[in-house]
């Protein structure tokens, strides 16, 4: 698994759309989409916020191999 796949898993576990997550993160849904497709990585601030919004740890986002 990679960060993008982990974001998708965590987002779907919370029944959030990309637009819902983008709204909670104050970013565009295109940003969320690009993270999920591993075209771009979230910066450190957004990675911290992602973990909080998705109710997972940063370690899980980065290292989960489930």
Largest sheet: none
Q: Which blocks of ≥5 consecutive residues have pLDDT under 50?
A: none
Secondary-structure element series: HHHHH
Provide the structure class.
mainly alpha
Report on this model:
- The chain has five helices and no strands.
- With 66 residues, it is mostly helical.
- Helix 2 crosses helix 3.
- It is globular.
List keywords for this structure.
66 residues; mainly alpha; 5 helices; globular
Q: Which helices and strands appear, and what pairs or packs with what?
A:
Layout: H1 3-13, H2 18-25, H3 29-36, H4 44-54, H5 58-63
Could you give a short description of this structure?
The protein has 66 residues and is an all-alpha fold. It contains five helices and no strands. The model has no long low-confidence stretch (mean pLDDT 94).
């Amino acid at each position: 698994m990679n960060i993008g796949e982990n974001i998708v898993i965590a987002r779907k576990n919370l029944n959030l759309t990309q637009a819902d997550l983008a709204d909670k993160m104050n970013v565009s849904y295109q940003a969320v989409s690009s993270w999920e497709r591993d075209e771009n990585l979230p910066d450190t601030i957004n990675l911290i916020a992602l973990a909080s919004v998705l109710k997972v740890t940063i370690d899980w986002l980065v290292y989960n191999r489930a």
